[in-house]
Amino acid sequence: MNPSSLKSRFATRFLRALTQIHARKPICPSSPTEIFRRYRRIKAAADKSMAYSVRSRRTWTGAVLWKLRSRSCGRRSVKTSTLVKSQQAIEKKTRHEKQNKNTTTTTGGHGVGFGVEATASELRELVPGGEAMDYCNLLDETAHYIKCLTTQVKVMKKIADFYSL
Amino acid sequence: MESVADVLVKKVKEKVAKLTVGAPEDDCDITPVVSESSANFIEGLVKDAKEKGATFCQEYKRDGNLIWPLLLDNVRPDMRIAWEEPFGPVLPVIRINSIEEGIHHCNASNFGLQGCVFTKDVNKAKLISDAMETGTVQINSAPARGPDHFPFQGLKDSGIGSQGVTNSINMMTKIKSTVINLPTPSYTPCSREMQAMNPLLNPAQQLPLQDLQSTARQQIQNPHFDPTASHDDFLEQMLSPLSSCSWSDLKSPWDPPKSDETGPPNVGFHYDEVLASKLRQHQINGGDGGGVSSPATAAIKMMAQQQMMLPGRGVAGMPLSLGSSGAAGSHHQNDIIYGSSFKSPNQQGGEGSMQSLYNGFSDGSLPGTNQTQHFQHPQAPNFGATAGTVMNQSQASGSMTPAQPKQRVRARRGQATDPHSIAERLRRERIAERMKALQELVPNANKTDKASMLDEIIDYVKFLQLQVKVLSMSRLGGAAAVAPLVAEMPSEGGGDCANGGGSIHRNSNGNQTSADNDSVTVTEHQVAKLMEEDMGSAMQYLQGKGLCLMPISLATAISTATCHSRNPNKGGGSHPLLQSNGEGPSSPSMSVLSVQSATRGNGGLDGSVKDAASVSKP
């Protein structure tokens, strides 16, 4: 396997995260809450590793990380400072995209605003960070997101299979 | 320019200080922005500018969605606020040292809705505004919508289409032509006259549209011309008579239609016209690059062809001049197009130009690919342009230049020149190519049509996300943990689950049997099997069984295998987590399993691994 491919980067990160998760000893491991928590942690680890492994900065990676961070800061509405910090993280990512026509802002009119094209609303909900993009970029992001998701699933499945041996 | 900036900033600061801030009910100048996320966005821009060292002329203050007006000085292009619209009361001042710098910054943005130039020098105003790539430039005014009859539109990423009285109507109007084709040419004094003489040359005659259409239509009814033929077939049809390299053959495809209307006259011109039209045809075919081949475009080609012929009829030297155009660089507009195809014949020099034309054409066309390379670049817009030039030519010679073919060709010309349509078309192309890329990613996507493509994509994304969730669940390991979540499983605890599930994989061991849960385990077994083969059908199977969001039972099937992962003798040192798990199994079932593995005599690393491997494979 190519040592620097998306697959390998994600696999390394994810395994590292898994190690950390499994290293924790819960108080009562068989309680549903504990299970749920673990599931959440693993899923969060998977998403985070995926977002970090992506080399080309994409809007959805930023949105995923932001969601994770805001969730980890507490389930209530996030405070301004935290929000700004996480926003800055996203901005760092999105800055790279400026050259690639990042349209996280609405394309504005003056007085009579043109706004963001409001099609494919369901897709926008599915793809993280999709709300603020125009349709064209949304499709772009979706393609990349699908690619990364399939990689993620493949690697996780392989890990699961490996465990099953 | 420094002095202007300082003065300006000072004046703006004074004005900002006078602004009232508050709720709109109190008639304040500055009111809250539209939403919290918008306010957060603005704050992000401001913080970014602060980090990078912009000069804050006021203190940044925010209360909920209300942001106090803020003037930022010494903003540099590496700050986000120089490029992104805040949609809030934040005004960045970028100091430039030259006009070019300002224009460069303006044009470097991806947005281009409005721009403003403030100056007293009218020449500078004109020059600068011409250089700015925005939809509208306001001179000595803030951005505004208007005057009303001016189009309100943007370039690049700004806006779709155009607003404004005329423009809106045009944008929403597509010209549609309806052609009534009569079976025979209709009689009018004009048409009769035209047929008698050179019918298509008289500039003064204003032919009724009907006649034009009918004559044009007749010309189209070339028996060799099959509108439904493909692009290549058409080319072959056109070229095949030429391959025999004889004049009489050249004449043959064109005789039948001609005999209908023109009769005796103009026979002498046939060869010229035929050749010229064939050349034109070839160029059109080549120029298209095999892109569009539809009956309509073939018809257009025919039309253009016909028009090519028209000058040939009256002007004897026309094709000849074409032949020499490449060398002479004459004033004809078609030089560029025709010249390139005639490079070879013109180099032949001494021959009569007709002969050279002919030779050139046969040289060029028979190895068809040779010529087409010339025309890779002149694609649709150029085709439109050449059709246009052909039309111009024919117009110049006062031929019929009917409105009908003009309208047919106009669609392409319009697309080529109208910036709105270009932008719209580009946008549509971009979306189409992205949809195509997505189609390749999503399995079974070619079976669906475009309309439901989006649904397919959405389903696939949902499915992938679900898979991730499932796999995250499965990696919990400790099937015991999963048991309480399973409603339909008997409540004998996780041990049963583990045992039941484990029995699938350890039947050969005979250590444990699963008396209960047989049906469930069978399901799991099947699902696990399916999962390996095809995730999709696995999911469908599960859904069919009424297990919708089903991580549980499936996870059991997978995680029973993960029970084996508790075996500390797994793998090498590269998997420390396995080791740590194996050390302290916390649940009773775990202990059972580890005891089991112990009893199996897990002395050798490889041995136990092999054991497990052979056992667990369904």
Automatic annotation (TrEMBL), chain A:
Keywords: Transcription, Transcription regulation. It comes from the Eukaryota. It holds the Pfam family IBH1_N. This is IBH1-like N-terminal domain-containing protein. Residues 4-71 form the IBH1-like N-terminal domain.
From TrEMBL, chain B:
SUPFAM superfamilies: ALDH-like, HLH, helix-loop-helix DNA-binding domain. Residues 415-464 form the BHLH domain. It holds the Pfam family Aldedh. Its main location: nucleus. InterPro entries: Ald_DH/histidinol_DH, Ald_DH_C, Aldehyde_DH_dom, ALDH-related_metabolic_enz, bHLH_dom, HLH_DNA-bd_sf. It catalyses: D-glyceraldehyde 3-phosphate + NADP(+) + H2O = (2R)-3-phosphoglycerate + NADPH + 2 H(+). It comes from the Eukaryota. Residues 393-404, 505-519 have a biased composition (Polar residues). It is found in: Nucleus. Keywords: Nucleus, Oxidoreductase, Transcription, Transcription regulation. Residues 393-419, 498-519, 565-618 are annotated as: Disordered. Its EC number is 1.2.1.9. Signal peptide: none annotated. This is NADP-dependent glyceraldehyde-3-phosphate dehydrogenase. It comes from Hibiscus sabdariffa.
